[in-house]
Amino acid sequence: MLILTQLGFSQSCGIYRIIYVGEIQSESLEISTIKLPRIELLHGYEKFKSEYAFVEINLEKRKFKLELTSHLTSDLYDNPIRYWEMYKNKRKSIPIILSIKNKTLNKIKEIIIEIPWEEVEISKVNEEEFGNFFQINLKEIKIQEK
What we know:
Elements: E1 16-25, E2 30-37, H1 39-43, E3 54-58, E4 63-70, H2 80-90, E5 93-102, E6 107-116, E7 121-124, E8 132-142
Parallel strand pairs: 1-8
Antiparallel strand pairs: 1-4, 2-3, 2-5, 5-6, 7-8
């Protein structure tokens, strides 16, 4: 009897990470959480209304920071502009979902904000960890009550 085995090794070129950073500014609204798009949504593999399209996080003093990892592609290597262009070709803007607390009714409602890619900064983060790492800075997002 002959038994064959194969040892597999994964390569770092197939992995990249992003970190979202930004701040929410609102004079009158109480924002409890923010949902940021997963990398699969940015690549166009996940639909907007899918339960896997977004990651929900709490705000800390109106600021947010979320790191995500993807195995989808690193074929664009280490150029953040090429990722920005790829994302922009899939969606005209980057969607975020805010959960806003209505103080009077004690209910939460969600609003969707679309941030044009031209207002987003993307840069490479230099570190010693595995794969490419990019920061998507959504800057200061101002929300007005309607």
